[in-house]
Peptidase S54 rhomboid domain-containing protein (Brevundimonas terrae), 233 residues
Amino acid sequence: MQMHPEDNRSEPRPVEPAPPKSSGSEPIFKIPFVPLVVAVGLVGLFMAQSSLGQGGMEMGLRPVDLSAGYVGGLFTHMLVHGSWAHVIMNAVALLAFGTPVARDFDKGMGPIGWLLFFIVCGVLGGLGYALVHWGSYTPMVGASGAVFGMIGASLRLMAGPGLLIPLFHPVVLRGAAAWMAVNLVTGLLGSLLTGGEAGIAWEAHAFGFLAGIILIAPFHQFFSRKIHRMPGS
């Protein structure tokens, strides 16, 4: 559109300043792509789970299978859940605690690193459960071990973007004690929280949390551009 010369002499119109962006609340509504897809995928898989043999329970992790050399359950148990309450709690927690980890893994291969971190924490959580219940025929299902790995990792990212709190920092130790107390309570409540007769595999939570809180450090070295420790630590 053309402007006449006199238009240039007109008084500039006041511009309404844009409201400042809140750095604390806005990112909540910008969930990274990978955690969102995985969380939605877990719910979608549960919707299709009833069409599988034994309602998907054959994909669970039976400790006795590990003693026979079958390790597939260490991976497949994360894909099935015991109830709607179970899968929804895991999906919501994954969005909440997987998001800061995904934001921190900001290199080009960051999304792959996030998926790998999720799987490793889930596998180690399942392995810890199997070692405690060695020889058991009861299947354990759910991605809770992987989710607790994200919780442990997020605890060390609480200081802010790019700051990894040292493992034995009082903030980390207090947070870990609080989460393990919550884990113990949920384990004692058992079926009241799962919405069914199944108990809660609190051991998988504990081992997954331990894996996440430790392994977040080496994963930073490969997948984050940010600094990796607290100043002065």
User: Anything to note?
Assistant: The radius of gyration is 22 Å.
